[in-house]
Amino acid sequence: MQESIDRAKGLIEALPYMQEFRHKTVVVKYGGHAMVDENLKKQFALDMILLKHIGVNPVIVHGGGPQINQLLDRLEIKPSYVQGMRVTDGETMSVVEMVLVGKVNKEIVGNINHCGGRAVGLSGRDGDLIMAEKLKINKKNDDALKDAPPELIDLGRVGQVTKVNAQILQALDDKDFIPVIAPVGVGADGQAFNINADLVAGAVAGELKAAKLILLTDVAGVQDAEGTLLKSLQQKDLEGYIAEETIAGGMIPKVRCCADALRQGVSKTHILDGRIEHAILLEMFTKEGIGTEIV
Questions:
Q1: Which pLDDT score, from 0 to 100, does residue 133 have?
Q2: How many C-beta neighbours within 10 Å does residue 288 have?
Q3: Contact assessment for residue 110 and residue 167, using Cβ atoms and an 8 Å cutoff
Q4: CA–CA separation, 216 vs 61, rounded Å?
Q5: What percent of the chain has pLDDT over 90?
Q6: Model confidence over 110-145: pLDDT tens digits?
Q7: Cβ 205 vs Cβ 29: under 8 Å
Q8: Rounded to an integer, what distance in angstroms lies between the CA atom of residue 185 and that of residue 97?
Q9: C-alpha neighbours within 13 Å on the C-beta side of residue 191
């Protein structure tokens, strides 16, 4: 009996948060271990269905880097990276689109629908949902060449978001569908671009003025030099943490993605450990929350 009472108390604790986020949009970047562990995949699908049923509007943007690498390996195509970004020639772009749009996206949609939800899969090319242009990055000069002009690096079909056409997502929301977006954009030439999923999620959240942007990762959140979780960060302090290397490596683009989303009107951003069951519900509907919030 006490266990049942505790469950009821948990629902009552969640009630004000459910009321707060009803009819509001939450954009989730889905990636990491949560996408490959069978139990976590099912729990994620159920979490999204629950959000939709209580009146929250979830929008999912997913990654798929490991799955892309698996197919490239089978096709004996060696991946190449520059500054952590995949060089994407025409052949690699075909593989990227095949895996993200044709396999990963449909699996996520299938999981949600199988568990009783109503999901629709999209790529950025559908209805020109994600417009993009070529991403330009500079080669890092060594000290001997520090006064030389920067040299551009050609990453091929790697893009950055220029526009999100939110009408498509709003139309799906009006019909109670959950959008699931593969991070493939379309350029002015009609050709596909491979875009970092975090960047797509941030751009979508900004265009929709989402109440929350949630990035699922394989770490507890942003941690200090001693490994202590930083529960809350201010946007204005992020570059200082990066300069002192408290925030480093792969966490840098994630916190900058959060900062960009906040500048575009997103209310709060979160970096959560997707290896924890129901991580999104724990963040949204409990007083303590989990992970790191950036506001």
A1: 95
A2: 7
A3: no
A4: 11
A5: 68
A6: 999 999 999 999 999 999 999 999 988 776 655 545
A7: no
A8: 10
A9: 15
Domains of the chain: 23-294 (3.40.1160.10)
> Residues 87-96, buried b or exposed e (16+ Cβ, 10 A)?
bbeeebbebb
**What's the pLDDT tens digit per position in 47-57?**
999 999 999 99
Nearest-angstrom CA–CA distance, 149 and 58: 44
Q: Across 70-79, 120-129, 221-230, which has the greatest mean pLDDT?
A: 120-129
Q: Which residues contact residue 35 at a Cβ distance below 8 angstroms, ignoring those fewer than 6 apart?
A: 41, 62, 63, 64, 104, 108, 274
What whole-number percentage of the chain has pLDDT above 70? 94
Handedness of CA 278, 175, 260, 236 (dihedral sign): negative
pTM of the model: 0.92
Cβ-in-10-Å burial (0-12, 13-18, 19+) of 38 comes to exposed
Q: CA angle, 156 as apex, 218 and 60 as ends, to 5°?
A: 35
